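Quick review question:
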């Protein structure tokens, strides 16, 4: 079970996590299926008393990390303490580690990612293969929500958070009129190489942020289909790039403002 988009688990997510925790804690006399509602209520009460440090009725990422061995704890918290600058950076990392272009980060690819993360964060170059497999299994247990043994886009996005999805700001939700400055700020956020257009991983990062506004769980195929839908709606010229004009049309549609409104 992984933390929700807000960085914590609660409600049915917490129930699911506790059932899985029982299963993984080597409790041979109790299986998740045999856990009654009464037992779950009692378990949740004890669990929250022990780990819900801020007593908000939720388990956030830092509280969850307390359950993990020290090295896994470190791996989990490192990226939350050092979030990516933008989804453009996320998509570059995704492309690098999805080495077979399957649209998923499979166990071996995740293992390679964790190996490089340890090198980056702790300058460790000699992690044993057994330890890496152990770390990989732990991260899959935490973030692989649908339990298919691999990470889809939305699951990897929980492991690799960005500082902010700028498109979540209220100005893009119709509460206020978009200005030229707003649009220019978004354009510069995604046009990382300053070449005057949004393309390649810049485009994928923008579309990922856009998709997250309407869909919680998504994979690479969802992103492809979303890209086709969005770009068809703005008369995309199929050159693999988004211009300022095309970005303006998308943002106006997002904010539900008529395109002839004064910018």
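Suggested answer, residue by residue:
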């Amino acid at each position: 079970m992984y933390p929700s988009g807000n960085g914590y688990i609660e409600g049915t997510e917490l129930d699911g996590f506790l059932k899985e925790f029982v299963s993984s804690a080597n409790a041979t006399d109790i299986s998740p299926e045999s856990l009654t509602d009464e037992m779950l209520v009692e378990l949740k009460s004890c669990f929250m008393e022990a780990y819900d440090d801020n007593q908000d009725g939720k388990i956030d990422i830092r509280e969850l990390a307390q359950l993990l061995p020290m090295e896994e704890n470190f791996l989990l918290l490192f990226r939350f303490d050092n979030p990516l600058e933008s989804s453009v950076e996320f998509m570059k990392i995704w492309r690098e580690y999805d080495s077979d272009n399957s649209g998923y980060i499979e166990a071996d690819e995740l293992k390679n990612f964790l190996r490089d993360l340890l090198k980056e964060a702790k300058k460790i170059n000699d992690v044993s293969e057994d330890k890496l497999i152990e770390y990989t299994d732990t991260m899959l247990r935490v973030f692989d929500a649908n339990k298919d043994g691999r990470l889809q886009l939305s699951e990897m996005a929980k492991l690799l958070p960005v500082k902010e999805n700028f498109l979540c700001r209220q100005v893009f939700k119709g509460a206020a009129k978009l200005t030229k400055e707003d649009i220019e700020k978004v354009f510069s956020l995604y046009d990382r190489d300053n070449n005057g257009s949004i393309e390649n991983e810049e485009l994928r990062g923008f579309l990922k942020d856009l998709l997250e506004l309407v869909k919680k769980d998504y994979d690479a195929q969802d992103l492809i289909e979303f890209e086709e839908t969005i770009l068809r709606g703005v008369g995309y010229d199929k050159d693999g790039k988004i211009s300022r004009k095309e970005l303006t049309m998308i943002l106006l549609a997002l904010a539900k403002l008529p395109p002839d409104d004064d910018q």
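Why it works: The chain has three domains: 1-67, 68-86+95-163, 166-255. The mean pLDDT is 80.
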